[in-house]
Amino acid sequence: MKKLLISAVAAIALMAAAPLAMADAPKQGGQATITFNNDLTTLDPQVGYDWQNWSVIKSIFDGLMDYKPGTTELEPDLAESYTVSDDGLTYTFKLRDGVKFHNGRPMTSADVKYSFERAVNPATQSPGGGYFGMIAGYDDVAGGKATTLSGIETPDDKTVIFKLTRPDATFLHLMAINFGYVVPKEEVEKAGADWGKKPVGTGAFKFVEWVPGQSIKLERNKDYYKANTPYLDGITFEFGQDPTVAVLRLKKGEIDIVGDGIPPAQFAELMADAANKDLIAEGDQLHTGYVTMNVTQPPFDNVKVRQAVNMAINKDRIVRLINNRAAPASQALPPAMPGYNPDNKGYAYDPEGAKKLLAEAGVGEITTELYVMNVDPNPRIAQAIQQDLAAVGIKAEIRSLAQAEVIAAGGAGKAPMIWSGGMAWIADFPDPANFYYGILGCAGAVEGGWNWSRYCNKALDERATKADAMVKDDQKDARIAEWKAVFDDVLKDAPWAPIFNEKRFTYHSERLGGDPALFTDPIHIPVNYDYIYAKDAQ
């Protein structure tokens, strides 16, 4: 997913006895205020597709599955339980009793079926509808030939059966993604075009109001099926707030979370202040920042040139440029992702070795272009990459453009090189498949796709498909081992130069409590609002 400017974070271990360990006993009550620079675009779960939308959507709606708070460990949510057929083609979910929409109506299996059909229906224009392509009947609905998915059956109000056309080990993760969150048909139809501004879900918080450009207010759902959840009585999201100003307001006790993260110019000062020791939560992220090289165009159609680029870039220096808010990357997958190979150290910084490879490639003098999003610190990072490439004989002209222009150039296959900063891939769900098909697989190497390197290795695609057909519990280790091997081979082909894996830092007020993992949650980005609490609640 292109969750812009900020990222998801890594898995953090849970204690079996409780969701997370709290320093103090959580209290019921109180309010929290979160600021953002930009307003949201929508609260429609079938449409929202960036980190900022998700941070609010995930507190208003629920899916059949979710992740344990602060982790990437799947668990049933609206589903009480589920079973999977031996061939991996049939999933049967039993729904919980007592789940109600915010309008008071009980949720049923018909609502689940409607929500998935709405996501796939082209009229919805959902960016995530394609994720459900393995459900029988998908092609007919997506192609406008039908409005119902033949692969979803509802034999009674509490049972939903999904029939797939192929086994897919990521299916349960897809049941936790927002595109499949359950919505009430009558409310969607009543709101019409305004549905994204008037959401009604089953989640921990109920929507109250949205003043465009100013604020969104939520209140506690007192009928939420999870007892004693959420802790806060209400949340206000304020917009149009510069992060630098937000930091000052937090210090004054006027707000509780700087939603956009700590501004680069204030990072070193805030981290060095002992008073902030317990107020800044830090977490690794399911993110990789990388340089793409268009493998269909000279000189990057030569693998030795691509490997030389990997060896030419001083990743440690780039990490220092961003105040050490990341760790140097060795491969496409981030360390927290299943399938990451800790034994694969990637390409070491070796300018002389890079020169040798370029000489072996016999490409002569190289002149190229490096596209970059024109928002700090990305131009500075591009300049550092430019200097490193120049040192080995590659002259790269920087094209610093608006985000949309860089994305368009990448999708059109016109950009020889792109620094992905501000647009780098962040996992939609914590599985290696999500880091492959759209950005490294053949499916993404198309006009308008996100595979900006246009790398297409059909043999690896076949191995990836076979890996995802391993759906049985006793095949999990073998599946991840195969994915590890796939990404090792991607690294050999070097369509990217992985640069760093970002870390997430969330600055919050002293009055908010909760495990630090909740403030850098991998799924409820950037904060799991359902489980944080106000220490001063009465």
TrEMBL record:
Swiss-Prot/TrEMBL keywords: Signal
Single GO molecular function: peptide transmembrane transporter activity
Location(s) in or outside the cell: Periplasm
PROSITE patterns per record: SBP_BACTERIAL_5
Domain of life, source organism: Bacteria
Signal peptide start-end: 1-23
Any one biological process term the GO annotation gives: peptide transport
Solute-binding protein family domain span: 73-444
GO cellular component, one term: ATP-binding cassette (ABC) transporter complex
Membrane-crossing segments per the record: none
Entries under PANTHER family matching the protein: D,D-DIPEPTIDE-BINDING PERIPLASMIC PROTEIN DDPA-RELATED, PERIPLASMIC BINDING COMPONENT OF ABC TRANSPORTER
Family classification: Belongs to the bacterial solute-binding protein 5 family.
Protein name: ABC transporter substrate-binding protein
Organism whose genome encodes this protein: Aestuariivirga litoralis
Species lineage: Bacteria, Pseudomonadati, Pseudomonadota, Alphaproteobacteria, Hyphomicrobiales
